[in-house]
């Protein structure tokens, strides 16, 4: 008797819970609070904040930010100034821009490349409404509302600049003391302070509203008042800086990890509060509207106080999405996301509700985690600025295991050995779940940024410098051999992954593959853009991050790749991760996205178009964790209209009996979840 022939026609998923189908990326959200460049109160109490993403507006001093219409052609927006006539003028990356409607719409005023600078602002004279702006060694002036500018003073580098209520111009000139002009910049004289500041920089100048001046030297905060008199407010604390001045002339300043107030009349200092966001060199300024203060602490964002600085509230929600760097999902489906805040600093956020809400709790030293990896024992290991960290409680608490300037990458082999690349310190290896580490000999001076493993267990490591080739080890990292394949036009490799008997490499020039365990290489022809990271998919496919194409998936073989869905809108994808339900999360430079394509129950056996099958056959598919039961629909009719058999099962397999010989069967699987 002949065996039947079973044709596996299609698999699809229907969930009563109405889960998203197909390949469209859904925006999840993510940690909010992009780095604030500047913030101002308008005369009507409205708040404006400038960022790399443009200008944001808040009408109620709460968490309701809307984005102004700032053209991307202007680039990032730096400082903001409200003029007496209600106009707002701002310095952007590509020129000076202006708004006539309180920050909603913006137009270009001047695109002179010399008139854009990250660290300075435009001041308006209270005498004649002329505008002033300094950059480098030059002070500029405009008499026509900012459209044209002329140089009115040139000398040494200007580290500080301000104008007081009388129209007096102050310049903190590097190694040349403080210059003052009382005639709109026509002439400048040295400020008559009985102390020589010619060996220091003078910055962060604030008028005290009584004809005096607050300013910072390299290590001091000083109050110059009356004629020839000055008072030392703070000494030998370089991270302590002036932040702003109250309406009666008191100075708000950073004092250690606190916010303090120096009283103009008594010359006494008192601490106002010591909130958690006051750290190290992150202070920038405080702006005031009545008794409401807004503090800008750079990478830690904006905070608002309604009682003169005694208590503070986070003001970052709604202020754009942070650039996410790395993502890992724990065994309990907790999302952990590392964000880049600037410099060497970052934040670590967690979400227990699929990204709807986020909690920030930073590891010691506030590092940027470049990579977070789950170990074989369920613990976490992370690499980033300041070294390698581990966590035993799903990212709540972290302990620094090894101190490096930058730990750039992590890889856990099939045998559980952890490899890390560190800035110019070679390869470091842990054989006890990241508890202790040791370096490898012979390549200590190189910076390794990517690792991978072939199906045969050979470990690969790529150096940051693309002219060095890459290395491999056949003895779990004890010794390494150099490979310099001529086929790779870019020898720097971002990632490796083994698939069956093939090894793939992600490079700046696309994807390459090797069938001889990494010695000879060939390029996959239809991928021309850079690829930066691989991942295994639940249905035996491969996934790759491509900055020019979003996320790619291999279809029927490693040689054919296509885009995995729409919806990323040219965002830069930086990391991807599956949760236990096979939902794919992607972190980008502006938010987090999810794709539910791999929620589908994918075929395991029999394979497509299998023949010579037994009469009693087991149908097997991958399980969907959120499904309560499945329906298997079997029919010799490809439209499933006749002779259809429906079988319900709580598991991801079923045995079908009494198949008809010499018959092609089609089958579907539907997964159901009932809440």
UniProtKB/TrEMBL annotation:
Residues annotated as signal peptide: none
Q: CDD domains under this entry?
A: Sialidase_non-viral
GO biological process terms held by the UniProt record: xyloglucan metabolic process
Q: Which PANTHER family match?
A: EXO-ALPHA-SIALIDASE, XYLOGLUCANASE (EUROFUNG)
Ranked from the top, the taxonomy reads:
unclassified sequences, metagenomes, ecological metagenomes
The protein's name is: Fibronectin type-III domain-containing protein
